Amino acid sequence: MAPECSRRDAPPSATLLIVCVALYTVVLAVASSPKALASSSALSSRARAAPEQQLLLSADLTTEESARRPGETRRPPSVEQELDVARAAIRRTAQRHGDAGRAGDGNVSSANTWFDAGVEYALLASVYRNPAAFHRSYAEMEKLFRVYVYEEGEPPILHAGPCKNIYTIEGRFIEQLELMAPSPASSSRRGTRRRSASDVRTSEPARAHAFFLPFSVSQMVQFAYRPNTYDKTPLRAIVADYVRVVASRHPYWNRSAGADHFMLACHDWGPEASTGHPELHANGIRALCNANSSEGFRPWQDVSVPDINLYDGDMPRQLLAPAPGVTSRPFLAFFAGGRHGHIRDLLLRHWKGRDPDFFPVYEHRHEDGFDYYSFMRRARFCLCPSGYQVASPRVVESIHAECVPVILSDGYVLPFADVLRWEAFSVAVPVADIPRLREVLERIPAPEVEKLQQGVRLVKRHFMLNQPPQRLDMFNMILHSVWLRRLNLRLDH
Ligand SMILES: *[C@@H]1O[C@H](CO)[C@@H](O)[C@H](O)[C@H]1NC(C)=O
Ligand SMILES: *[C@@H]1O[C@H](CO)[C@@H](O)[C@H](O)[C@H]1NC(C)=O
Ligand SMILES: *[C@@H]1O[C@H](CO)[C@@H](O)[C@H](O)[C@H]1NC(C)=O
Q1: Is the CB of 411 under 6 A from ligand 3?
Q2: Which of 155, 374, 402, 406 makes the best surface tag, with the fewest CB within 10 Å?
Q3: Do strands 303-304 and 285-288 pair parallel, antiparallel, or not at all (unpaired)?
Q4: Residue 254 C-alpha to ligand 2 middle, in angstroms?
């Protein structure tokens, strides 16, 4: 699949539009066309012809549960056995960590420099719910986790997504996963090659722990929705058709009724689109930016995905430079944005223009010469109110600017809260307290603000979008959230 985001300067072609208008027919035609069926059997013969890879993977299982008695036939463990082994290993580490914590031993574990990066244990323990369990879980994911991406369907609605602006993560996630086509040459270098994080995508669905439905809700809205109708029927129909197609052509959907399948959507209508197929909605793992717990987002089944706004598709350079410490930031707090929704309205009614030298709050952010990011880098706190949907790209922008995010929302389930303690690097202020916001923030003692900023600096790596993805970055943290849902394991104790 051609990398869409790498071609982000190309204008959308008119033929794309024509293709999409008849999307349901496209999807259905793909399902029944002889060419597509031929490529599907090519896929399964590829799966049969990769014994070296299976050996390599089973040899990778070094934990004691996989040790066998001499003479016992060595068969690759089943996907469920692999998950059992990983679950047991993570539980043991979590338990040991719990004991060690009570005994006052300050070590997470040995030789985990890629994780603790020389950071003091006290900081790790404040930022992560259980640093050792997270580290172990992440390492198990790198060792084992395999995701199968369905190949059915055509861009722009399948296998592509926006690469710029507010829904960037849809396009980037699909592209980064699809660019990870495992190369047959490297997997047959038997026994010697260490699995790397980029081996997460597998061409063998029979060996996959999770299945990705590569549709983009933003692209559906752009190409299949009739503007101003607010009619979401086309979105639901596309989702329903896609699930029907993959469920009829592969055994995996029916096997689990969708429970080991996941989708990802950043568009506000992602949750709505997921209702298109009742099993996807009930059993599937929905990775959503619009993680509103009042609208049926289920924190332990679904995945909250950070909203990241890349205006031109790249990480803003101003935010990548090292940022000032809290003592050299003149502003207490900063906000600039539109009057979208009741929380923003409340915020602007109380604070707009009140004290621009200390508590700058502006309506709009796109005026000429307005240097949004430099305000963020000069404020101790950055206000992140919900807009028309609960998530705000300001959360990630604040973290990049090393400004402590102030979460102003009702029912926003924060990203990666399965492993991160948000209270260690952000402040949540109830919407009802917006009228006293300045007082609430001023009351936080200076050493506490410094600690919060240290936390922000530590978690920054989890909110970076790299190409190619890097260990512990946003792409891999989203995958880790999916991995935890698939293990059905909580790391919060
Ligand atoms: C933590 O582990 C390191 C390396 O294994 C060791 O040198 C250090 O003494 C340990 N610290 C504590 C508090 O146990
Ligand atoms: C899965 O179930 C659906 C609905 O019962 C059925 O139409 C489809 O053929 C099944 N898929 C397979 C691969 O058997
Ligand atoms: C979250 O969901 C509730 C219930 O539907 C809704 O009233 C609220 O406005 C939503 N929040 C946002 C910011 O969309």
Answers
A1: yes
A2: 374
A3: parallel
A4: 6
pLDDT tens for the chain, 493 residues long, are: 444 676 444 444 433 333 343 444 444 444 443 333 333 333 233 233 333 333 223 333 334 344 445 555 667 789 999 999 999 999 998 887 655 444 344 455 444 578 887 888 899 999 999 999 999 999 999 999 999 999 999 999 999 999 999 999 999 999 999 988 663 434 434 444 556 656 899 999 999 999 999 999 999 999 999 999 999 999 999 999 999 999 999 999 999 999 999 999 999 999 999 999 999 999 999 999 999 999 999 999 999 999 999 988 888 888 888 899 999 999 999 999 999 999 999 999 999 999 999 999 999 876 777 889 999 999 999 999 999 999 999 999 999 999 999 999 999 999 999 999 999 999 999 999 999 999 999 999 999 999 999 999 999 999 999 989 999 999 999 999 999 999 999 887 5
For ligand 1, whether the C-beta of 120 sits within 6 Å is no
Residue 296 near ligand 3, beta carbon < 6 Å: no
Answer yes or no: is the C-beta of 247 below 6 A from any ligand 2 atom. yes
* Binding site membership of 203 for ligand 3 (Cβ less than 6 Å): no
Q: Where are the chain's structural domains? A: 5-51+146-311+476-487, 75-144, 317-463
Would you list the DSSP string of 154-194?
-TTTBS----SBTTHHHHHHHHHHHTTPPPHHHHTSTTTPP
pTM: 0.84
Residue 455, classified by CB atoms within 10 Å of its CB into exposed (0-12), middle (13-18) or buried (19+), is buried
Q: Which atom of ligand 1 is nearest to the CA of 106?
A: 13
Contact (Cβ atoms closer than 8 angstroms) between residue 94 and residue 133: yes
Nearest to 397 by CA among 325, 452, 475, 323: 323
**CA distance linking residue 56 with residue 417, whole number of Å:** 34
How many Å lie between the centroid of ligand 2 and the Cα of residue 272?
24
Is the domain spanning 317-463 CATH 3.40.50.12280? The answer is no
Ligand 3 near 290 CB (within 6 A): no
Cα of 160 vs centre of ligand 2, distance in Å, is: 27
110 C-beta closer than 6 A to ligand 1: yes
**How many A from CA of 226 to the centre of ligand 3?**
24
Ligand nearest to the CA of 250: 2
